[in-house]
């Protein structure tokens, strides 16, 4: 399992498969950030994602570079970046496309377990 408050950066398909398999079993909300290192909007969202990861230790955050993990990007039907896919137990529950930080925060909050 990843350390709380951290973003998991998957750089190989094998790493993605291993990490994703582990977190699917955890039942935690997972946010996958599909990004590109050369993309200005993607770079804009990185510090926002880092802050969310620190504030929300019960959420697991992934970073997927669309140029490196093309097969994973295709699996999730991502065509624009940044794209944020929210998952529970491996199933997509929501998606945010673009630099909509307020919408991302709202959707994360919406899908957190109710206490």
Overview of this protein structure:
- Residues 1-113 form the Thioredoxin domain.
- The chain has 115 residues and is α/β, with parallel strands linked by helices.
- The protein has helices at 13-24, 40-55, 70-75, 101-111; strands spanning 7-10, 29-35, 59-65, 83-88, 91-97.
- It has a five-stranded mixed beta sheet with strand order 1-3-2-4-5, with helices on both faces.
- Strand 4 and strand 5 form a beta hairpin.
- The protein is globular and about 40 Å long.
- The protein starts with 6 loop residues before the first strand and ends with a helix.
- The mean pLDDT is 93.
Layout of helices and strands:
Blueprint: E1 7-10, H1 13-24, E2 29-35, H2 40-55, E3 59-65, H3 70-75, E4 83-88, E5 91-97, H4 101-111
Parallel strand pairs: 1-3, 2-3
Antiparallel strand pairs: 2-4, 4-5
